[in-house]
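hey all, quick one before standup. I had two proteins in the batch that finished overnight and I want to keep them in one place so we stop losing track of which output belongs to which input. First protein below, input sequence then structure tokens straight from the run.
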Amino acid sequence: MLETKRRVIGQLIICKGCCCGATQNGRPEVPVEWLKEEWRKRGLLKRFQLSISGCLGPCDVPNVIAINSESSSQWLAEITDFNQYRSLVEWAARSVEAGGLLDLPREFNRHRIHPWR
């Protein structure tokens, strides 16, 4: 098995594909550049990966996010408000400080989806 030098606690994958963030089609914006800058500014990149992806699906809900760790995968959808992205950045920073993924803030409970069911 290959090993890396870094201990990554997780990966946040932001969908920015055909539907998510497609403001020209009436979908809510995904603040990609702001997220990248915050991730860099807070020094999260080496411990908590941020990936901006093409289509993650499912496309019937806007602004999908996948959160992966060694032990779990969580999916969120309908992340439509800038403050939700701000909350995710704060959560990621606290998780890095704690050395592992903390529970997501309760505000995201109603945004959880299970795309493989």
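OK second protein, same deal, sequence then tokens:
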Amino acid sequence: MSTLQSEIEAHLATSEPDTEVLLAEVLPSPTHPTLRIFIDHPDGVSLALCERVTALLGELRERYALEVSSPGAERPLTKPNHFRRFVGRRARVRTREPRPVPAAGSAGEQRAKSFTGELVGATDSEITLAADGGVVAIPYSEIRRSNLVEE
């Protein structure tokens, strides 16, 4: 999780304590970078909630064009509890560095940075994904980006 995401979570903790920040990412731009924030709430994400969060983050609007939205069907997975909540669902996980691809009977080691399959486990240190060709364990520290995939 980024420092910026931690700052946003801390800022919202008092005014919108039930709002969870799923992902905060900066999209570079030569003129004005965009800060995209995906939020979730136990009662769902409404336009009114997005507007309240946007208003609470006024100081960030001076540095970024701000986008606040619900995660949608292909919601980002950024924390161990996100992965645990969605065990049994399909996910795509992109790693920071190429990892060995589980493949039975193939000649030579293949490596990839993207894996898609059923999320079969999530501990405090890694996830386990049943990807095409076999099961792969990926430590959270090696995950660059991940999200659910529509089934």
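Flagging for whoever picks this up: The radius of gyration is 17 Å. The chain has a mean pLDDT of 90.
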